[in-house]
Amino acid sequence: MYSEAMSYRQQFPPAPFYPRFPSPKAWNEYRRSDQIEYEAIMDHNDAVFYAQYGAHIRAQEEERVAA
Question: Source organism's superkingdom (predicted)?
């Protein structure tokens, strides 16, 4: 699987950053928006993790009380 992915990447390399971002300002704007998107994804993942973890802990506590 890894070698297939690397072969694909060699055949179809990613687009270069320049000229996609023609100036440092454009590059920094991209980085800022990418960071905001990343943080939103991680905030969501955090919420999901703690909801799942909380449900697990509550279920364990209920089992302990019922025993």
Answer: Eukaryota
